[in-house]
Fold this sequence. Notes:
Layout: H1 2-6, E1 19-21, E2 26-28, H2 30-54, H3 79-89, H4 91-94, E3 97-104, E4 112-120, H5 124-147, H6 152-171
Amino acid sequence: MAATVATGPPAAGAAVFAVELPAVHAVLDPAALAGLGLLLSLPVVLLTRALARRQTARTAELAWGCGGVRDSPRMQYTATSFAEPLVRIFGDTLRPTRDLQVQHAPQSPYLVRGISFRQHVTDEVEQRLYRPVVATLMRVGDAGRRVHNGSIHRYLAFSFAALVAVLLVVTR
C-alpha cells in the first residue's frame, strides 16, 4: 500500500520530488515544507533577537565566591573539600593518613609561625584489585613478547595450532 502511494505519478504542477497521497488527496512537496518551516521560524528568531538586544549583559559570579572575582586558585574549592565530609563519615573504612605540623616561633613555644596539614586517602580498590590485575596482565604481555621473535615459521605454527584447536572444539 505504501509503495503504491509513494510511487504514484506526481500531480499536475507538483515538484519533481513531490509525493502524491491519493488516499487523502494531498501532495507532499519537500521544498514547500522547507519554505513553510522557514516562514514559521522567522518570527521566532526575530523576536528572540529583539528581546536579547533589550536586556543588558549580566555577569554572574559564583555564590561561594561572595559575589566577587577570585583572587587566586587558592580560593577555589578543591576535590578534597567536597570529599572531606565523606572521609569523616567513612574514616574507619577509608583510613586516611593525616599529618599536622606546627612550627613554633623561636622566641616562645606558644607563638605559632606556621601550620601545615596534609591528608591522604589510599584507594583500597586500586591497591587490592586493579594493581594485581594490571601486574598479572603485564606479566602475560611480557611472556607474549618473548614468543614473538619475528620468525614466520613460528607464526605459521601458531596459526596451525589455533586452527586445529578450533576444529577440535567445533567437532565436539
